[in-house]
Amino acid sequence: MFSFISGMTGSWGELVQAIWVGFRFDLRLSVLITLPIIWAFLIPHWNLLTVPILQKLSQIYLAIAVVGTVFFYGFDLGNYSYLGHRMDVSTLRLLENPIIAMEMAWESYPIVWIVLGLIGCTLAIFWWIQNGFLILLGQSQVQRFRHRATGFILGGLVVLFSFWGTFRQYQLLWSDAHFSKDPFIVAVALNPILYLNETRNFELEDFDLSEAQKYYSLMADELGVDEPNLDEMNYVRTVSANSKSDHPNIVIVFLESVGFNRMERTGNPMGATPNLDRLASEGISFDRFYIPMVGTARSVFGMLTGIHDVASVETASSNPRIVDQYSLVNALDGYDKHYIMGGSASWRNVRSLIQNNIPDMRIKEQEDMDYPRLDVWGISDHDLFQAAHDQFEALDKSKPFFAVVQTATNHRPYSIPDDVAGFEILDKDETDLANAGFDSKEQYNAMRSLDHAVGEFMKNAASSTYGNNTIFLFFGDHGTSDPRANHMPPSDFELKLRSYQVPLIVYAPWKFKGGRIRNDVSQLVDLMPTVCGLAGVSYENRTLGRDLFHDAIPSEPLAMIVNKKVAEQHIAVVGQDHYLSMQKDGSDVKLHELWSNEPWVDVKAKYPEITRSYSKRLKGIYETAKYMLYHNKN
């Protein structure tokens, strides 16, 4: 609480309530840990007060429990610092790549001091446990029956209340912590060990065929399916090649942790993105572009497959049952295909996702590049862009190429190489940074470093042999959970859209007249249909996306998100002026005005028709996405 209270937006009264809820959760955990000791005390004539070996065994048990609990709390503290939420079952996915997770932690946090602190806490509690036994053994035994009965009843009531957590009919549940709209308040109220145990039963959410069928007609009409067929659940739209296209090169630049509110063109006063802003002003900027769920791996999956990664616990790329996916990248016939990243493609199963579904895409990763490793995420973005440029220059110019360049170092631990020409680290006032939505000086300079790397890459491309026939698409894989950005509308922070609204810039001065701004709502799944349209190839669209340049724009396009950044997690759609949320089962529907000064106010009674329309479309998109994950095989 003391570490992260600066992010609190709720009231002090709510904080007090959260402490009381959290205290009762802690009581429950204490009872669960000491339950074996309690039972051992109740054994007549052969218990912890009379048998030394039982005393020793109980101390060993408590020592193990204490070590596990203290270190778990240490991991939870680091997890909250890194991800902004308490540990749950989804956190265990970090254990799939323990070396990467450990290196990231080592480079981001003072691990030595943290471990020493945890050891100090553990030793202090060991002393406390031993001292407790000495006090018990040094006091006189309770002999009289009424004393035993009184102790048993009072002790039993204390244990019962501690476990139940309330005087009400129903016991204290983790949902009782979600009384506030402030995620920090909710985090204070939760007990991480109990919360992890509560969420361990969350399985990867499978599709519901009946629900997908229920919304098939709606989705077939919205997507423009060629031949709707409920029995076959057909979502195919066939697009013919553009005979006027000269099949340009296509480069997608995957911008790590770049939310739309980072851009100076939004009014951000810190000037961290001069190069990206220039590309936006000279190219085509999609200012209402959204990703469905925060997580780099989820954005990789959505980009390559055109399906929202709505998997509940694991990312879709990590699920072997759905790794076989149709990808529009394969529609780029005659193109050389490249995936270039500064780290390892084994991360989050990206290698399998690509190789299994796009067999002719060549992966270039850290071990293939002769550049020094910067941190846990691999080489620096500056070196990554230089490697990409060198590779593009060396390609056969008689064939077009398609490439994804995935950046990574605008990310904790925010490493910046020392020898970058033309770049220097700036020292800014922390209050000014916080008001602009930056968490720290390190984060601010890492954003500047990525932008500088983009600028150098585009400068090289402008004088290259491939630049005059290449269309560049830059997009942010997700935003970040940082302080309120004062230059953005209130909904950016209150509805946590800062994590989901990202820039999309299409830059090709030789092809498009620059300075165009698109304010219609678009989303990540639109990326590959748009690429295929720009490439001028024939393709069969079986995705949830549309070509942003050639397809008809719906009367009101919507973008779906799975919002895990709010206190009460939900699924939602973002429209032109409204935001509708609900639970996954369709309950607790709320409608919000995006441009209101009070965007958290539920206005569904004011706009019943919008509420009905958005609710049906949200359920349709969500259920269809779940179905497609299992029925869109390559």
Report on this structure:
- The protein is an alpha/beta fold.
- It has 2 domains: 5-199, no CATH class; 242-555, Alkaline Phosphatase, subunit A (3-Layer(aba) Sandwich).
- Helices cover 40% and strands 12% of the residues.
- It is built from 18 helices and 15 strands.
- It has helices at residues 12-41, 52-83, 98-108, 111-138, 145-164, 183-189, 192-199, 209-214, 216-223, 274-282, 296-305, 350-357, 381-394, 430-435, 441-462, 491-494, 527-535, 608-630; strands at residues 237-239, 249-255, 284-290, 336-341, 361-364, 401-406, 470-476, 501-507, 516-518, 522-523, 539-541, 559-563, 570-574, 578-582, 590-593.
- Strands 2, 3, 4, 5, 6, 7, 8, 9 and 10 form a 9-stranded mixed β-sheet that branches.
- The chain is globular.
- The protein starts with 11 loop residues before the first helix and ends with a helix.
Question: What would the keywords be for this entry?
Answer:
634 residues, 2 domains, four-stranded antiparallel β-sheet, 12% strand
Mean pLDDT: 91
Q: What fraction, in percent, of the residue positions are helical?
A: 40-55%
CATH architecture of the largest domain: 3-Layer(aba) Sandwich
- How much of the sequence lies in strands comes to 5-15%
Unreliable residue runs: none
Largest sheet: 9 strands, mixed
Q: According to CATH, what is the class of the largest domain?
A: Alpha Beta
Distance between the termini: 48 Å
CATH superfamily of the largest domain: Alkaline Phosphatase, subunit A
Count of alpha/pi helices? 18
Q: Report Rg.
A: 28 Å
Number of domains: 2
General form: globular
In terms of structural class, how would the helical and strand content be classed? Answer: alpha/beta
Task: Report the count of strand segments.
Answer: 15
Q: What fold name stands as the CATH topology of the largest domain?
A: Alkaline Phosphatase, subunit A
